[in-house]
Amino acid sequence: MRLTNSKRLSSVNGEDSQLSAHFRNPFTHELRFTSLQKIKIAVMTVTLFPLRLLFAAFMMLLAWPFAFVATIGQSEDTVETSSWWRWLVDLALKAIMRTLWFSGGFHWVRVKGRPALPSEAPILTLAPHSSYFDAIPVTRTMASVVMKEESRNIPVWGTLIKFIRPVFVSRSDQDSRRKTVEEIKHRALSAGAWPQIMIFPEGTCTNRSCLIAFKPGAFIPGVPVQPVVLRYPNKMDTISWTWQGPGAFKILWLTLCQLHNSIEIEYLPIYTPSEEEKKDPALFASNVRQVMAKALQLPIIDYSFEDCQLAMVKGPLSLPSHTCLLEFSRLLRRLGLKSGVTDQVLQEEGRRARKLCGHRLNMKGFAEYISHPVTETLQDVFALFQEHNQMDVREYVIALSVVCRPFKYWDTIQLAFKSLSRENKHTATEITFRREDKNSDG
């Protein structure tokens, strides 16, 4: 598989820029301390840190009986009528959780703007998502969130989560994504009967250097949303929890060792979608992201959670940091060519590509092959593979397999073997690939 250098540059905020020169990987975080900072952390580790940790655990245990009693007999399918009892529990839990955050060094939570009522904006979109400390605005409002199904079984924490009526997502259920979107839509169209839903549309944590691509789930219902931006204006960033960098406990330890931690929550004006945006959730998401990026004064980068997975994949397809596949993935998403790509679709694409027997296509032929009009973005895709203004479509199919199923590298290797075996009689066998992989691991 060969990818040539792209002739065009990626776009940030609508302007061309050299990502290699100015792009900071949003999925990595590195902490460096001066000697004085290390001494301060060492002192705090044996003095303030254990006290804060014990007090936080105590506050969690104190909150549990309130949430437990309030959730007895609670149905997850129907919203309960408001009652003075639940209102008191809600007030008590907010006070307890605020005390918990205060004990962790978040002495002041600066809030700007006016939070919308559920009837005005059923969905709150929060960004950038960078840490589990982003739970602070959730505990201030007790709004619902989208959570993993496994969270409900965590002792103490699972009961607290259940109280805020979350939308649970099951990784084991292949139909979970559709069910989640339907539940979000059901609640959003309830005219304020359900609590507001707080959604982090980026879908993963970053280091807050930019806003990555927004997932469309929060925007599919086509209802007004209120963008909410988060800032942590601390001298030392011990908050960020990314794919590459300090782990969860180290982040907790370093943050609790800080005498004071700052957070700012800004509620932006309600964004009401146009008729065009209601029909196109991707456009709706993109426009809301532009508003939030402007408020944060951050660039936008069209990389997503899936691109993060692609960059972190290990094994035979472990990718170098300069790979063009990340750019290829971004362009496919912009063209809408990544959605609906299953194993069966890729097998069919492989069969179609083999029928060409290595026949090379020009730009027009490639556009006809994938049934897409010639656009500037499609030309960018073609430029990644072209040589002398022609391309082998089999390379496109193999690259498509890599970006759509990065962790199924043996399936991609088998697809590549089948696609290229007709042309080369002396190609390596699958057994050879597996032997080489074993040797490299050993």
Structural class: alpha/beta
Strand order of the largest sheet: 3-9-8-4-7-5-6
Sheet with the most strands, sense and barrel status: 7 strands, mixed
Distance between the termini: 25 Å
In round numbers, the mean pLDDT is: 82
Total number of β-strand segments?
A: 9
Q: Write down the secondary-structure element order.
A: EEHHHHEEHEHEHEEHEHHHHHHHHHH
Q: Tell me roughly what share of residues is in helical segments.
A: 40-55%
Give the percentage of residues in beta strands: 5-15%
Poorly predicted regions are 1-22, 424-442
What's the tally of helices?
18
Query: What shape does the CA trace take?
Result: globular
Rg estimate, integer Å: 25 Å
Short description:
The protein is α/β, with parallel strands linked by helices and 442 residues long. Helices cover 45% and strands 8% of the residues.
Could you walk me through the main structural features you see in this protein, from its secondary elements to its overall organization?
It is a single chain. The chain has 442 residues and is an alpha/beta fold. The chain has helices at 19-22, 35-46, 48-71, 84-103, 136-141, 157-163, 176-188, 248-256, 275-279, 281-296, 305-312, 325-335, 343-355, 363-369, 376-385, 393-404, 409-420, 430-441, and strands at 11-12, 15-16, 109-112, 123-127, 144-148, 167-169, 197-199, 225-231, 263-267. A seven-stranded mixed β-sheet has the order 3-9-8-4-7-5-6, covered by helices on one side. Strand 5 (144-148), helix 6 and strand 6 (167-169) form a beta-alpha-beta unit. Helix 12 crosses helix 16 (393-404). The longest helix has 24 residues, at 48-71. The chain is globular and about 70 Å long. The relative contact order is 0.12. Mean pLDDT is 82; it is low at 1-22 and 424-442.
